[in-house]
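From: lab user (bench 3)
To: helpdesk
Subject: output format question, protein + pyridoxal-5'-phosphate

Hello, I'm new to running complex predictions and I'm not sure whether the block I got back is the full result or only part of it. Here's what I submitted:
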Amino acid sequence: MESQKLIMIPAKALSRQVPCWQRELAQAITDPAELLRELELDPALLPAARAAAARFPLRVPRGFVARMRKGDPDDPLLRQVLPLGAELEATPGFVNDPVGDRAAQAAPGVLHKYHGRALLIVTGACAVHCRYCFRREFPYAEAHAGVDEWRLALAYLANDPSIREVILSGGDPLSLSDRRLGVLLAALDQIPHLERLRIHSRQPIVLPERVDDGLLERLAQTRLRLVLVVHANHPRELDETVRTALARLAATGVTLLNQAVLLRGVNDSTTVLAELSEALFAARVLPYYLHLLDPVRGAAHFDVNETEASAIIKTLRRRLPGYLTPRLVREQPGQPAKTLVG
Ligand SMILES: *Cc1c(COP(=O)(O)O)cnc(C)c1O
Ligand code: SF4
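Helpdesk reply: Thanks, we reran it on our side. This is the complete output you should expect:
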């Protein structure tokens, strides 16, 4: 029987195995009906979910869905990904490009807004679609640096010695295959004035399978000091698989930070935010930023106003050590840094 099994697996397929994380990614839930069924939710939610998904598609990895409570339409993890009718309501002040990204492009896919740091949009793809994302309305197809355009982006970075740090962003830069990521990292390695490489990625949280040997090998090869900024908004996002992934990253010497977004109905409470900070630190991650929602069209129902946000962060500051209190910030177009709030 052994020989029969061998015949069924062609040698070619064995040598070009698809990494486990890419299979997980391909199997993400994209049909609202399936998500509702999986979580035993009321099918009456479906028409609105379909309508909102037509504007910004549903996408959520199954491992993330497994961390949600069944039968709870208000689950804080579900709220981040379930399309709602409220997204289709127009709200004054909520616009398509709330942070002025289109105006800030210095070269194809390069946002150079802050001194010493340049942000590279390397892909439009994400493993998860967060309903509040400030780039939900961003024209990625035009904006991200495709493989050919990396040449122009890299030339821009090489020509400006004031740039010490490159930030890989997107979309999610860890959506790139190890091979493409390796090519990019090797090219950045060659730019002598670069010292740090920062990666902004939600994948270690929503798709921890991404943190595999192939990725860790690539990260270990660069001469640049590595910072990985993950993105978790609620303590229940950090389960055992995520903690393992983060521990492996920490073991390779990557500095781990978290950025969260303050979201109505998800984490707009001092208790939840304190638990998030504790859970992050237990997983070797320091809280970095807590962002006020960027006023992007379709996300107004997540908004927490500045007065309430300031009160929440003040209470948090009294409850936690300074190093576990994230900086509450907002992004203001045209400013030389993010603006501290509270
Ligand atoms: C947020 C951001 C950065 C990084 O800012 P830090 O304060 O260094 O975290 C850099 N470039 C752009 C365009 C940004 O939006
Ligand atoms: S992972 Fe980040 S970039 Fe992607 S949809 Fe979520 S918030 Fe937006």
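A quick orientation on your result: Residues 211 and 248 are 8 Å apart (CA to CA). Let us know if anything else is unclear.
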